[in-house]
Each structure stands twice: as structure tokens, then as C-alpha cells.
Write a structure and sequence with these properties.
mainly alpha, Oxidized Rhodanese, domain 1, 2 domains, 5-stranded parallel β-sheet, 14 helices, 5 strands, elongated
Length: 329
Amino acid sequence: MTRTLARIAMLLVLLVGIGLAIANRDAFDAATLEAWVEQAGIAGPLAFVLIYVLATILFLPGSVMTLAGGALFGPVLGTVLNLTGATLGASLAFLVSRHLASDRVARRTGGRLKQLIQGVESEGWRFVAFVRLVPLFPFNLLNYALGLTRIPFWHYVIASCVCMLPGAIAYTYLGYAGREAIAGGESLIQKILIGIALLAAVAFLPGLVARLRRGPTLDITALRQRLDAGEDLLLLDVRKPEEFTGELGHIAGARNLALDSLDTRSKELLAWQERPVMLVCHTDKRSAKAARILARKGFADLHVVAGGMVAWHAAGLPVESRHPRSGKS
């Protein structure tokens, strides 16, 4: 009983703190941060890290902190302080969430949500690395959400720290370059160009990570072996419905969801977000496009079936042409 009351009290304090922070977020700007750091004197870097930690826990914008870190401390020390503050803040939010609600969530969740959580847990640090490099969800909210899973704490911390580094470097340098632009420092154009190049590199990361997460191309022999073994996988045929039931037919057990509707209907496949998905089409061009779409949406284990139904037919493997499994839920 005492433990439950302590958790309720902690939750109320946290909610009140978040509410006050959000209500007064307009006062949270670079000028205010600079004044606080200057008042701290020699302890300014430590004060900055502590403020960053609190901002992360209380849902204040981390971009303001990161840009301010570059402006106040330069590209090197600023990156160190920004990454330290972001990692500590993310870690504390994770621990708070785990302490307050992870047991309750584990007992009461079911259905697709439970499958999604189990998928995240099975991928572990790799999922953390992915969402840090490709920010699909708000940073502050994600810290608390991951605390509800059973991902090991130190796996979470290390993956977060390492994979937040590219963004920390880019945005810290951007803050530094902005400060130099205002002050009219030397080599201004060069610094601005470096900042733009770093941002371009960070913008390129989602595509790179999506490509890495797409998984290897799968030939029809390997697909047949996995199907015959009864492996728990989703065989997703992204051809149009009339092709699915047309001349080439479809592979038994396949689910049809056309490429042109995949972007808007991918939520129907959330149960498979962290589980194997085999993508097939007429050859493999549309499957490759489907893999890019699903990878951007966080699907982790994607495999394009090389040659598609043309290769399947050429190998003389069995097909069905009636009673398709619709992509509708």
C-alpha cells in the first residue's frame, strides 16, 4: 500500500511539473538559458546539463537546448554537454516510466499492443538505435514509452547515447554557426556550409537505416523452405487485387495489400512491425518500393522476394487463384 501511494505521489508530481513546464514553455528560450548559465559562473556547464535533463523529463523542446549548447559552449564542448544532458534525461525518464507503470502495463496489455511491445522487446537495443537515428516519435514521449518495455536499461542507455551522437553534432554545430553569424565571426561562410553539410548527413540517415533494416533479398527457394517449415511470417503480396486473383494467381497464405494503398493502410500491419515480412509482386520492383515505405514506418524485418510471382511460376511451384485473403482488417 505504501509503495502504491509513493508511486501515485511521484506520478502526480511529474504530471504537475510537466503541466507547468508546458504552460510556461514560451519563456523557455535561448536568451533565458544563457542568463541561467551565466549566473552559474564556473558551474555553468554543469548547470546546463542539469537544465537539459529537466527539460527532457518535463517535455520541453530539446532542439532549443541543443542549439543553445552550441551557441554557448562551441561545437566540441557543446556536443559533449548536449549529448550528456540528453542521455541522462532520456535515462531518467525511462527509469521513471519503468518504476511507475511497466508492471501494470505488462499485466494488462493484450492484443496488437502486446504483440507490438513484444516485438520491440525482441529487437531490444536495435529498435532503440533505429528510433534514435530515425526519429519517428517525439523524443520526450519515446523515452517514457520505451520504459514500459523490458528492454535492458544499459542496452537502452548505450544505444541512445551512440545513436543520438550524429544529431547532437549537427545541431550543436548549427547553434554555434548561428551564434557566429550574429557576431560576424571569421570564416562565416565556411562554418555555415559545414553546418548545412552536417544537417544533410543527418537527413540522409533515415534512408540509410531504412535500407539496412529492409533485410536481404530472398529467393523463391528460401521462401518456399520458410513457408514449408511453418515459420511465423507475413507473406504480403503488393500487386493489385485483379493481379492477385489473375493469371499468375498467388502463393497460398499470402495477404494482399496493393502498393498504391500501402502508405495509408500500413497501420493494418502493425502486428508485424517487428516480425518477418516477405514482400512479393509480379517481379520485385513494387516489392522493393513497398519495402522502402514500410521501413520508413518502422517495420524491422523486411525481405523482398527476388523475381516475384514470375520466378515462382518458372520454378513450377503451386499457386492459388481464388478466395484471396484481403488486406482489410
